Amino acid sequence: MQLTIDLTGREILVTGSDAAARQAVRRYEAAGAVVSRLSSPNGAALDGPLPERPFLVAAVDDGQPGWEALLERCRAAGIPVAAEPAAGPAGHVTLVGGGPGTTELLTVAAVAALRDADVVFYDRLAPYQELPQLSTAELVDVGKRPGHHPVSQSGIEELMVAAALAGKNVVRLKGGDPYVFGRGGEEVAACVKAGVPVRVISGVTSAISVPAAAGIPVTHRGVSHLFTVVSGHAPLTEKEHTHLAGLGGTIVVLMGIGTLHQLAAGLRRAGMRADMPMAVVERGYRPGQRTTIAELGTITTAAADCSNPAVLVIGDVVRVAEANRGCAEAAAELDRLAASLMGA
Description:
single chain; about 350 residues; five-stranded parallel beta sheet; 11 helices; elongated
């Protein structure tokens, strides 16, 4: 349940078995409610006497028969009944792709996993600012920054495994998709080695979504029918530059500001034309999003003050975005005008 009313000091009765109801109890307590518990239809209250007339009954679907009669009596007495999902089985890990950093691009499955988590280990590129509204779990920042890794990758894996073995539902929240330069495969392997159940929830990769935020399609009919995604953390080899230049289509480079000079020079040596359009999209979907557009031969100068997180896009699709930009700006101006007229 997404709690949208003030429950501070309200008496809430949560029904359902201990294991199934643990997440619901935590959510209502986090909302400031005074929570009473009933773990079976014919059982006694777990935390003292039941409230004579609770503000709300939160009914957790734990699969036990016999609850409906009690809930019907509550409804007949005018007491609201809210259906709550049962918590998932304890002691497992879920790798969640958080998308490019905005909760608007979280999947339904990602939101559900966060809601049911006992602990969330999150990265700096995940939409962590809104986590307190999405989860009542313990939130642990394990984000790595260039040159600054307060928790190593092996350390993160050890934390995940230890928490799951202690009986917690663990969410590892990552930016983008766990399997697109997200080291998700390594984290799955660590869980499997430790005998911890693990699943992966795919996320919206920044390789596609961040160019889209700048109006750049990675493919476009008659312009590009393929795209290649490259990590920019380390310089490419001459052979890789040659392959990329020969493939055609669109090249998308993630976190490539630090190797931009080597990339541009290497592609030029491999035969890519100097006037190939190129874009640098910084902080996609975040405050201060900025797009710098130049040509391969001039991009290092044009993007001299750009910084990560950024996505580089190389290819003629960048010109598609430039052509559409005037239309998009005109549409945005119409939206602003309409909003001002409605407000008047």
